[in-house]
Amino acid sequence: MPMLNMPEPKTDDMTRIPGLFRRWELAELILPGQSYHIEAAGHADDGTPLFAVYKGADPHATGLSD
Known about the structure:
Elements: E1 15-21, H1 26-29, E2 36-43, E3 49-55
Antiparallel strand pairs: 1-3, 2-3
């Protein structure tokens, strides 16, 4: 499946998930139906690339409580 040429989200509108993550850890963070911005954030001591992850607002959240 080809990648879509989507505009990059503004990280001002997103919340950073605390921590830096390795590529294989991203599968534990990413949920369907959510928007994310992932950017390179350096390397671990062993040379493994690290990534910062930003998450958009939950599209299903209404802001209303029961």
